[in-house]
Specification:
The protein is an alpha/beta fold and about 525 residues long. The chain is built from 18 helices and 23 strands. The protein is about 35% helix and about 20% strand. The strands form 5 sheets. A 9-stranded mixed beta sheet has the order 13-12-14-15-23-22-21-18-19, sandwiched between helices. The radius of gyration is 25 Å and the shape is globular.
Amino acid sequence: MAETKYIFVTGGVASSLGKGIISSSIGKLLQARGYNITIQKFDPYINIDPGTLNPYEHGECYVTVDGHEADLDLGHYERFTGIQTTKANNLTTGRIYKAVIDKERRGDYLGKTIQVIPHITDEIKRNVMLLGKKNNYDFVITEIGGTVGDIEGLPFLESIRQLKWELGKRALCVHLTYIPYLAAAKELKTKPTQHSVKELQSVGIQPDILVLRTEHPINDNIRKKVANFCNVDADAVVQSVDMPTIYEVPVRMQEQKLDETILRKMGEPVGETPTLGPWRSFLERRHKATEIVNIGLVGKYDLQDAYKSILESLSQAGTYNDYKVKTTFINSEKITEDNVAEKLKDMDGIVICPGFGQRGIEGKIVAAHYTRTHDIPTFGICLGMQMMVIEFARNVLGYEDANSREMDEKTEHNVIDIMEDQKNITNMGGTMRLGAYECILKQGSRVFDIYKKEYIQERHRHRYEFNNDFEQEYEKAGMKCVGRNPESNLIEIVEIPGLKWYIGTQFHPEYSSTVLHPHPLFLDFIKKAIENKKSKN
């Protein structure tokens, strides 16, 4: 393609309709046709990035390979398309304003009065176009967070309006909206959608395609009515009905020719419809997998979005093992020595979840002790791995006060500590190891057998590390340090070889598990959890 084309995905009526899934599906379908695509997310909140946000506010914080703390939708983009996103794929109002203010302080604007239009909108437009220009993508899909009508989203919509005007056929707007079903009247209602489109038109944007999110299938009459009242072609009105899995969405969008409509409207040849072979066989395996393996998630956030990437990685691994993974959240704040057996009794495997801070850590330690002594397959991720290390120090090495320096500054046995070169950095987020780092696996270890290679690269998001001063004691007592960073010599992975599956990783493997390339650690963990289930029966 000669020039990059731009697709904007906006949302109306309500948030959480699945703009990220629609954006990912469009990306997947265009990719299947041989186009080179990327997807970016613009979040209208004023935080610089979601790194400091409580997961209850905004779900999990996703980490890109270049160490950017990003919105969880970037996880969907990567899982669906297999692309790797970077800092350039996620922007917030905070980042935009900061960039403009920094330029103003440097004198780049030559004494001009800085205003939302043109300075803020120009900065947004520059970031929209940047990826296309830099990497020569055929399509850049830009998802705008929030809902049309939100005050903080206005500069983004104004930028889209300008770009649609400037780019002509090279820009297109897909608007995702909601068609509620009124149970009392037994009717689907189009009025909220009409209002949402009017709201979009009032800022000068005419949507080219409408995706109607609904719990009940929409008939042709409703489709025509929406097309008529919203100035959209009838074949450009697509429905997105609730599906048993989000991975069905690209297939359903393809059935309704969403990708064809996009190409036609943007003046591209339509060509043959891709078969989506590997994707469909993944879905087929998923549907056929009826037997259940039970995995307990031990963590402090009772919210599925807080552990989104872990849930998706477990689910993908289940499919490739021909099992359905049923996850149960177990609140670590409520786990005690007295009730741990009861809480974990039905679980075939346990994930000790990541997190930050003091809350709920003692419950994680109790859970790690129980799973280690009862030989239940256990996967500790980041803080979860650190809790496995602390538990081992307390109950095997005999250091009752063993802890992380994060939780107890005065502990004599700081088996988890902050790195020396980080101790004098105070900027929030600046002290963290973020993004992809190298790791060398010990030959003959279980993780070496799982990865089937010596050199791996995984993404990090943490401040504290395994304290190497204690390494020999751990090794002697049976917890092996089997993965380390070649530059810093920091320990990345611990395992207890004598148990069915007891592995802790300082990194986050869930960030690099995708639909067509599930992560080997999750695949092997689920395999062992299934074996554990069978042996119990």
